[in-house]
Structures are given as structure tokens and as C-alpha cells.
Amino acid sequence: MSVRRLAPKEVQPESFAFTDENLAWAEKTIAKYPAGRQASAVIPLLMRAQEQAGGWVSEPAMRYVGDMLGMAPIRVYEIATFYTQFQLQPVGRKAHIQVCGTTPCMLKGAEDLMKVCKKRIHAEPFHLSDNGDFSWEEVECAGTCTNAPMIQVFKDVYEDLTPADLDRILDAFERGETPATGPQNGRFLSAPVTGQATLLAAELYDGSMVGKGAGLALARQAIEARANGEAAPAAPAPAAASAAPPAPPKADPAPAAPLAAKAVEAAGNADSEKPSKPVAPPPGGKAD
Predict the structure, then answer these.
(1) What's the confidence (pLDDT) of residue 260?
(2) If 0-12 CB within 10 Å is exposed, 13-18 middle and 19+ buried, where does residue 278 land?
(3) Residue 254 has pLDDT above 70, yes or no
(4) Is residue 100 within 8 Å of 111, Cβ to Cβ?
């Protein structure tokens, strides 16, 4: 794991404070936690501070959040430096590119995406471009392995990328636009590139058959009927309620004392057959 340190003092702002809107949100968020557990709100408050500051968390912002939650500054620093979702130094004004470098993305061309970042942004990660609009880094799995390779820009993801796709996305950000998110090759969500092959009929997953006592068989009949322009079959009438089952027989009363297991009982019988005291052998001879 890489070492994560706070940005140097020369780039830290002198202070930080939530806007009125964010302050109201923060107070409402803190109130969700029981008394004495307000520190549990530290992650959402740091995330909101990062969003307000343009994508990174400054040291004054950490102290500000700590003061709101009654936490020592070091406790907030520990959290901000541990979780890689928090950026500890300024990022690009228009986009911070997080390139997934885990195995599936690497196998599908993530290194070529990093080459684009090195060429267009900076040769090293965590550095701003010359105009300050962009920055980039390599991250661990971002959770869209099926659509590898991919990048994440703040809260949005861009999948099924080629180097040309990434160039186009950077161009759009440069113009101040927000490029279309998701797969860039026409794929629907995470369906096969050749087209969706399962769950083609909404009745199979939209809940319209729930509670009708018909199950999957009737759903399939309805789908087939609709495809043929026919009326959907009616759900069968619910079966008549069967007679109440007879009451179970009354159990025999429990014995006064629990019965001993057979092994325990046999051991007790064997012990009772032994002499109560050892018998000495006769002088000069052996016992019978």
C-alpha cells in the first residue's frame, strides 16, 4: 500500500468551513447517530468536505470536521489517510482520472490508458497538468471487471475503454462538457457485448407475477402469449383451504426422573459387582 501523507503546508488553505447548505446537511447527518456515537459521521462529512473543496481534503477541513464531531485531529487524520477515496492534495479542476489497474483491467488494456494519462496529463500520478485542469492516479479494483478496462472520474465511471475513447473523454472535459458515462462500446450495462441474452421479458423480474400463485410457468405463458398477440392466460384459482389437521396426540407425562443412558447404567451395574474393599492374597500363594 502506498504511503499517504497530507499535502505540504504551502498548498494548504488557511481555513475551511462548510457552506450554509452543507452545514445544514452535516448537522442533519450527525443527528442520525445515537448520543455518544457522533464520530461515526466522520466519513460522510469528510466526503462532503472533499466535494466542496473541489475534490480533495485539506488539513483545515479535517480539523473542522473533527471539531464538529468532538474528535481529536489525529483520529480524523488516521481515517483520511487510510481510505483512498480521500484525496490528500489538490486534483484537477475539471477531472481527476482514476485508472483501474487490477488484473482484469490490465489484461484488457489499462496500461494503454495510463499511457494516455502520462502523455496528456503528467508523466507521474498525483501531479496536476500544466493548466491545472487534470490529474490522474492508478487505483485498485473499481468493481466493473466485466466491462474492463475502466476509469472513474469523481463519482462517474467510464467502461469498455480504448485509448481513443479516453482521449475523447478528456477532450470533452477540456471543453467543459460531461461525457456520457458507462460502457463506451454500446454494451447495455454489463450484458454481453453481443447483446442481452437473459431477462428479456420484464415479467420475469418486474414483480408483476408476484402474489398471483402462478409462478414461473404462468409468467412464461404470458410472455409467449404477448409475443403471439394473444391474451395472457388467467391465473388459476387458489386451491381450497384444506381441513385443519388433527391436533397432535397428547404427550405422555414426563417421567419423574430422567432415564439414565444404557452405557451409564451398565457401568453402574459393573461397579456394584466389585467388592467394596480389595482382598489381600493368601500368604505364600496367589489369589483365586
Answers:
(1) 56
(2) exposed
(3) no
(4) no
Contact present, 173 and 129 (Cβ < 8 Å) = no
Which three three-digit cell numbers place residue 134? 487534470
Count Cα atoms within 13 angstroms, Cβ side, for 11: 12
pLDDT at 285: 55
- DSSP lists the bridge partners of residue 100 as 139
pLDDT of residue 197 exceeding 60, the answer is yes
Task: Tell me the pLDDT tens digit for each residue of 36-93.
Answer: 999 999 999 999 999 999 999 999 999 999 999 999 999 999 999 998 889 999 999 9
The pLDDT of residue 1 is: 44
End-to-end CA distance of the chain: 80
Predicted model pTM? 0.64
